[in-house]
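Long-time lurker, first post.

We've been arguing in lab meeting about whether adenosine-5'-triphosphate would sit comfortably in this protein at all. Half the group thinks yes, half thinks no, and nobody has a model to point at. So I'm putting the question to the forum: if I give you the sequence and the SMILES, can you give me back a predicted structure of the complex? Inputs are below. Any interpretation is welcome too.
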Amino acid sequence: MATTDTSTTTDDALLSMTDVTSGYGNTTVLHDVNISVREGEIGCLIGPNGSGKSTLMKSIYGFADVQSGTVQFRGEEITGRSPQENLAGGMSYVLQDASVFPRMSVHENMLMGGYVFDDDDRAAERAEELYDEFPILGDIRGQKAGTLSGGQRRLLELARALMVDPDVMMLDEPSIGLEPRFIDDVFERIEQLNDLGTTILLVEQNAEKGLSVADRGFVLASGEIKFTGSGTELLNNEEVGRLYLGG
Ligand SMILES: Nc1ncnc2c1ncn2[C@@H]1O[C@H](COP(=O)(O)OP(=O)(O)OP(=O)(O)O)[C@@H](O)[C@H]1O
Ligand SMILES: [Mg+2]
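Top reply:
Settle the argument with this. Predicted structure of the protein with adenosine-5'-triphosphate, as tokens:
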């Protein structure tokens, strides 16, 4: 869903951070961060290693400490809400170092993704729906997750995060370490999901690729948002190109 309007205020945002300063304990990593993503959009966060991209996602989801400022979801303040509450509330998160349970089968891993459901039948039904969408996973549902290839594992992580049928999905570097053909596959999935209505916030080290699918982009450096704009605007911004796109 491409849009060129970047004048989003937090009023019409689905997910936003307002003046967030955050980190871990007494360590501050992010300084006065403001970002917002509207319903149905893909937001993409880029920036150098160590700039705080993962910390930004963790600050939204409750894995890092928000020291000041607020996080809002659907107009409601969720600052400091726990990851479990966020998952149950319609947000799912694939961590950068997301992993699967290697000794469990693909199917058991999928069921773990639905652990917030009260009833096990619901989880099993949802897994079947996802095997229809990801036939590769259906085919290997009995295989131990520890024996999957990198691309298969990434798909399992993605599908497992979809067990709760989230409204928002946060993906931290979904393409890292994958061969080009798997990268394209993962990006196709992301765009498909977005077309079906899932709002997405993405961290992507392949900045060109990430911004090219994004409605809205954010450049983070040294814990501060340096640029915000539509994906196209950032791709065409000379300074962003020179500093962050290697061009
Ligand atoms: N659990 C933690 N406790 C203390 N400091 C941390 C913790 N996790 C990350 N940091 C620090 O926060 C800073 C930002 O790290 P973060 O992982 O958010 O960067 P990033 O932009 O995601 O980097 P990369 O591109 O390498 O994934 C780094 O200086 C890092 O050392
Ligand atoms: Mg990171």
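For your lab meeting: Residues 112 and 160 are 8 Å apart (CA to CA). The longest strand covers residues 27-37. Whichever side wins, do check it experimentally.
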